[in-house]
């Protein structure tokens, strides 16, 4: 079964790559729409090895290096993600300590992710100008609530178990209760929230850069698309997707280890 | 709710009404847009795209979810890659949709469907995998036909999981449609947002945001009511994998 699963997965990937290679080569799709996969991979290799995007537009705009865009994107993700975790986690603890507050906020938390938060982006640009701040703010808003909810949920789950009672009968002080009972018990749930916040912040930062910005990988995709630099566009898309998938696999692996530890 | 409106009013007083109009002015701009009609054709475009995209998302998501839920081979091969794809910023792929479906509403419908189908599919196969195997054994012992097994045993068992997926799918379809319109379009609420943004018209931006949030809240109230009927308590838990 395991070998069949692996075989099917690889056959699918290969078939997909072959189709994407064959379509433009056979002339069924114009090269302005889709370049062959081999060309895209070669272009990505070129961008990564030389560190510059081979494009007259970015040369003129004064930001031909990959590093300038990569650092803008990673910086925005890092700041918004750090904000989401550092503010969201204590807020989640607070929500767990104050059940009345939790009950009041419950309906808002349920519908929060239903709102198309990106609609706020043009407003943020109006208020704060194009640049770092509106992107980071949106990334923070997109990531923070999932941290709050998962933290509160995880702590509440620990309360349903026997461990807090054990802790109290051992006469642990409040600090000890947090450090040796609640934190380890709620860790997997909290980590799930942190992981999702990373995913959400990343999505938000890339999407904001994609819509309006002057730097960043999303900006590279957007500009390459509008300038018909198809190979550059697909190379940047590949870079973003590959990077996010790698980070996500890593976080999922850690998450799975945390869950198996408590089971 | 009252606190939220008050906070908005206070922020507006601090930033100045030109940059951030207060709630009253946003609401009256929204009513103006509906009465004088500058918003209405765009509202229709967006609603059509949402409904079209959602229909495809549900159709494709359910078929994908049921196929993967029914076959351990398919689930083993594709669950990981699909979960990973779900976490990717899907906006980056929007140029592909533009290339395939052109600038009109078809590209937004396709993109909205692509956004929304993931939660539908994921919740469906998860519900099928966590189904009680004894129920299937009973169905086999009673010699139910595959069609009967599906409608009388599998479907009722996985319905609670599916309705949650349906709600999350709607939210993502809405997001996908608005993002698509914001990136490249000549009509729709996302297009209005970007053009009012370029024109520094804060009160009209807020009116559009208000309308979009209302669409989201109304649709979610309906879907949450459905969820409550089917499963009792709606799932706040946001973990997917």
Provide a descriptive summary of the structure in words.
The complex is a heterodimer of chains A (263) and B (241). Chain A is built from eleven helices and no strands. Chain A has two domains: 1-33; 35-262, MetI-like fold, CATH 1.10.3720. In chain A, helix 6 (121-128) packs across helix 7 (132-159). Chain A is mostly helical. Chain A is globular, with a radius of gyration of 23 Å. Helix content of chain B is 81%, strand content 0%. Chain B has helices spanning 2-15, 23-36, 40-70, 72-87, 94-101, 105-129, 133-141, 146-183, 189-198, 202-231. Chain B starts with a helix and ends in a 10-residue tail after the last helix. The model of chain B is unreliable at 237-241 (pLDDT under 50). Chain B has ten helices and no strands. Chain B has one domain (23-231): MetI-like fold (Orthogonal Bundle). Chain B is an all-alpha fold and 241 residues long. The interface between A and B is large, with 58 and 61 residues.
List the helices and strands and how they pair.
The complex is a heterodimer of chains A (263) and B (241).
Chain A: H1 2-25, H2 37-50, H3 56-61, H4 66-97, H5 99-112, H6 121-128, H7 132-159, H8 163-169, H9 174-211, H10 217-226, H11 230-262
Helix pairs in contact in A: 2-11, 4-7, 4-9, 4-10, 6-7, 7-9, 8-9, 9-10, 9-11, 10-11
Chain B: H1 2-15, H2 23-36, H3 40-70, H4 72-87, H5 94-101, H6 105-129, H7 133-141, H8 146-183, H9 189-198, H10 202-231
């Amino acid at each position: 079964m395991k070998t069949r699963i692996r075989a099917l997965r690889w056959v699918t990937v290969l078939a997909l790559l072959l189709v994407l290679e064959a379509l433009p080569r056979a002339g069924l799709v114009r090269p302005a729409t889709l370049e062959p996969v081999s060309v895209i991979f070669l272009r990505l290799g070129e961008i990564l090895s030389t560190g510059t995007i081979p494009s007259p537009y970015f040369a003129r705009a004064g930001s031909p290096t990959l590093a300038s865009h990569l650092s803008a994107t990673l910086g925005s993700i890092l700041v918004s993600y750090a904000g989401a975790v550092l503010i969201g986690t204590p807020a989640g603890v607070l929500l767990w300590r104050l059940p009345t507050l939790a009950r009041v906020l419950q309906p808002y938390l349920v519908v929060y992710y239903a709102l198309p938060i990106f609609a706020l982006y043009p407003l943020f640009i109006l208020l704060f100008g194009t640049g770092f701040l509106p992107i980071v703010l949106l990334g923070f808003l997109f990531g923070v609530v999932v941290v709050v909810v998962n933290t509160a949920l995880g702590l509440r789950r620990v309360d349903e178990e026997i461990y807090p009672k054990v802790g109290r009968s051992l006469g642990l002080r409040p600090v000890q209760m947090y450090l040796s009972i609640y934190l380890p018990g709620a860790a997997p749930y909290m980590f799930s929230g942190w992981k999702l916040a990373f995913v959400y912040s990343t999505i938000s930062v890339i999407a904001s850069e994609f819509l309006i910005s002057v730097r960043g990988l999303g900006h590279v995709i957007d500009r390459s698309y509008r300038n018909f630099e198809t190979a550059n566009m697909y190379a940047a898309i590949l870079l973003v997707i590959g990077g996010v998938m790698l980070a996500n696999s890593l976080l999922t692996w850690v998450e799975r280890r945390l869950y198996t530890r408590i089971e | 709710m009252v606190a939220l409106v008050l906070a908005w009013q206070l922020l507006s007083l601090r930033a100045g009404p030109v940059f951030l109009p207060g709630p009253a002015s946003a609401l009256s701009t929204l009513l103006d847009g509906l009465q004088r009609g500058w918003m209405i054709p765009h509202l229709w475009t967006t609603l059509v795209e949402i409904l079209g995209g959602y229909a495809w998302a549900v159709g494709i998501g359910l078929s994908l979810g049921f196929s993967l839920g029914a076959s351990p081979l398919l689930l083993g091969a594709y669950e990981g890659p699909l979960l990973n794809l779900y976490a990717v910023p899907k906006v980056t792929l929007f140029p592909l949709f533009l290339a395939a479906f052109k600038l009109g509403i078809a590209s937004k419908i396709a993109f909205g469907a692509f956004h929304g189908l993931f939660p539908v599919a994921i919740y469906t196969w998860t519900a099928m995998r966590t189904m009680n195997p004894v129920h299937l054994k009973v169905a086999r012992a009673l010699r139910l036909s595959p069609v009967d097994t599906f409608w009388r045993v599998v479907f009722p068992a996985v319905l609670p999981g599916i309705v949650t997926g349906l709600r999350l799918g709607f939210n993502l379809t809405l997001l996908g449609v608005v993002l698509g319109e914001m990136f490249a379009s000549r009509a729709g609420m996302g297009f209005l947002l970007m053009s009012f943004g370029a024109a520094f018209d804060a009160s009209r931006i807020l009116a559009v945001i208000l309308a979009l949030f209302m669409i989201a809240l109304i649709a979610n109230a309906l879907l949450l009511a459905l969820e409550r009927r089917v499963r009792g308590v709606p799932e706040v838990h946001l973990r997917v994998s």
